[in-house]
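Worked example 3 (structure in, sequence out).
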């Protein structure tokens, strides 16, 4: 074994030998849950924020380059052209990694190393907000529901979305459109509950906030600068500071 796989196996082995809890997500977990394999040049590992520094220190001692490009959600470990993402939240600050991720993790084997995978509920929760022009994770969510719907803890998933329940509703409605023969995968009680909320919720005329920035870091910036909306990511009720949103916005040009 050489190249990226050797790097991944060494990093996984090092972290497994430590007391640092971590989970495998991204393309590797998606392939296990759905059966769709796709090429990837990185490995996504999910850790709690308080464990990021310990993980980086351990991997740096192995000679790998480490950095924290976005202190509100992401660190990176590099080995030549390959890299590992250490994820402890999401770009919008919503899907923070907490103990619940680990309590519901699934046992697996990745590259020959016994691992634990991110729970499918948390994968759906974090992917639901990725709706950029260049990347939309909606299809991943629908595939997860199709393959794992019968095993999903829908009550826990709904709780994860909390006040952002409209985002969950949008995806389950789309699921019924994409897979008419699989509509039973989404429990009727969930649709009843969410549509009831939809019918009774009133407009918040005195709350000029744009939550579009929770879905796309770029496509709703115009609404903030020209229409005067407040950024839905900012605390409170969001979790990000102005400095964090500025850093995340400045990286748009680099990503392009």
């Amino acid at each position: 074994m050489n190249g990226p796989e050797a790097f991944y196996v060494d990093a996984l082995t090092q972290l497994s030998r430590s007391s640092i809890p971590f989970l495998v997500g991204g393309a590797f977990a998606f392939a296990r849950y759905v059966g769709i394999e796709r090429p990837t040049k990185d490995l996504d590992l999910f850790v709690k924020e308080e464990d990021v520094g310990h993980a980086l220190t351990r991997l740096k001692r192995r000679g790998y380059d480490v950095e924290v490009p976005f202190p509100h959600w992401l660190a990176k470990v590099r080995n030549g052209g390959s890299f590992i993402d250490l994820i402890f939240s999401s770009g919008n600050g919503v899907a923070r990694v907490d103990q619940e991720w680990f309590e519901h993790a699934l046992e697996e084997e990745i590259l020959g190393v016994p691992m634990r995978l991110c729970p499918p509920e948390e994968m759906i929760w974090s992917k639901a907000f990725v709706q950029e022009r260049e990347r939309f994770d909606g299809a991943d969510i629908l595939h997860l529901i199709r393959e794992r719907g019968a095993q999903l803890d829908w009550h826990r998933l709904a709780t994860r979305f909390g006040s952002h329940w409209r985002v969950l509703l949008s995806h389950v409605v789309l699921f019924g459109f994409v897979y008419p023969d699989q509509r039973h995968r989404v429990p009727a009680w969930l649709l009843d509950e969410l549509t009831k909320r939809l019918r009774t919720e009133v407009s918040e005329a005195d709350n000029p906030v744009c939550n579009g920035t929770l879905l796309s870091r770029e496509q709703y910036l115009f609404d903030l600068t020209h229409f005067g909306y407040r950024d839905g990511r900012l605390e409170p009720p969001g979790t990000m500071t102005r400095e964090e949103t500025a850093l995340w916005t400045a990286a748009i040009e680099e990503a392009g």
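Notes: The mean pLDDT is 96. The CA atoms of residues 124 and 141 lie 6 Å apart.
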